[in-house]
Write a structure and sequence with these properties.
Structural class: mainly alpha
Strand content: under 5%
Subcellular location: Cell membrane
Main location: membrane
CATH architecture: Up-down Bundle
Order of helices and strands: EHHHEHHHEHHHHHH
CATH superfamily: Rhodopsin 7-helix transmembrane proteins
Mean pLDDT: 84
Strand order of the largest sheet: 2-1-3
Largest sheet: 3 strands, mixed
Pfam family, one: 7tm_4
Distance between the termini: 65 Å
Membrane topology: Multi-pass membrane protein
Number of domains: 1
GO molecular function: G protein-coupled receptor activity; odorant binding; olfactory receptor activity
Number of helices: 12
Number of strands: 3
Low-confidence stretches: none
Length: 303
């Protein structure tokens, strides 16, 4: 154990395949990040400035957009810098912080839609109780509690990783990922608790997914009986479902690549699978909600 060196820096070897196209990738990535910021900030500002949008559903949408900005801020600035740099380094603690930010945001991409699903369930299935159950103050408290819980769950995984002795400073990724750091451990026996914690975390958010599916199945069953509810479902629930499906597919690809991915896969393909959830959902979500939700669309059209 005394021969194990202390890792202070990580080399992000996932950038090796980007050298020949880095200026093109930089331009596209910068454009993508600007679009993400513009769309999400615009939606946040519209919701904040217009009192007719100060309702639980739109407050949750505002939180959703803030979460997207938080997560992408943990990735894009460093990624853009690395695309223009000849050496792709990140400090050990910087790596842990990046992991914490990106993955607590990713957890929010499931927990916040779960609260949105509950909001729609109460609005459509128990409309007479809606205002007493889903008040503005209660929704804000719920959203804050979920975000804090996400942060703490990821922090536990990050702390367990920080205890490991590492034998290599090379991460075959474009950014820091908790499980990729765990795989660098010198003593695999010490990673058992990390695997248990990671599986518990995945199970928790899988249950969020189950709750969302159950909520919408119940909503669909209720909507079949009423034309009014069917219209409400199409206007407010369909964007949630499209958003959830987009995130689920992109994140599933990332997890599959991380846990089961073969080293024989081209690095370019691995990189694409890794960053999809940081590119597609943050752009798609504000577009989907902005065009589909009637009140927001009307507010935008008035300008």
């Amino acid at each position: 154990m005394n021969n194990v060196s202390v890792i202070t820096m990580f080399f992000l070897s996932g950038f090796n395949e980007t050298v020949s196209h880095r200026f093109v990738l930089f331009s596209l990535s910068l454009l993508c990040y600007c679009i993400i910021c513009l769309l999400n900030v615009s939606l946040i500002v519209i919701i904040i400035l217009h009192s007719n949008l100060h309702e639980p559903m739109y407050i949750l949408l505002c939180v959703f957009c803030i979460n997207a900005l938080y997560g992408t801020a943990g990735f894009y600035p460093k990624f853009l810098w690395d695309l223009l740099s000849d050496v792709h380094l990140i400090s050990y603690y910087g790596c842990l912080i990046q992991t914490q930010v990106i993955y607590s945001s990713a957890c929010g991409e499931l927990s916040i839609p779960a609260l949105m699903a509950y909001d729609r369930y109460v609005a459509i299935c128990q409309p007479l109780k809606y205002h007493s159950i889903m008040s503005k103050q209660r929704v804000i408290r719920f959203a804050w509690f979920l975000w804090f819980t996400n942060f703490c769950i990821v922090a536990v995984n990050t702390f367990l990783t920080s205890r490991l002795k590492l034998c290599s400073p090379y991460l075959s990724r474009l950014f820091c990922v908790n499980w990729s750091i765990v795989q660098l451990a010198c003593f695999p026996a010490q990673t058992a608790i990390n695997a248990i914690s990671a599986n518990i975390t995945i199970s928790i958010y899988f249950l969020y997914g189950v709750f969302i599916v159950w909520s919408y199945l119940y909503i669909i069953q209720t909507c079949v009986r009423s034309i009014e509810n069917r219209a409400k479902f199409m206007q407010t629930c369909v964007p949630h479902l499209v958003s959830l499906f987009t995130f689920a597919v992109t994140k599933l690809l990332d997890i599959t690549n991380m846990r089961l991915g073969s080293k024989e896969l081209p690095q370019t393909l691995q990189n694409f699978a890794a960053i999809e959830f940081l590119v597609i959902p943050p752009i798609m979500n504000p577009l989907i909600y902005g065009f589909k939700l009637t009140k927001i669309r009307k507010t935008i059209c008035k300008k």
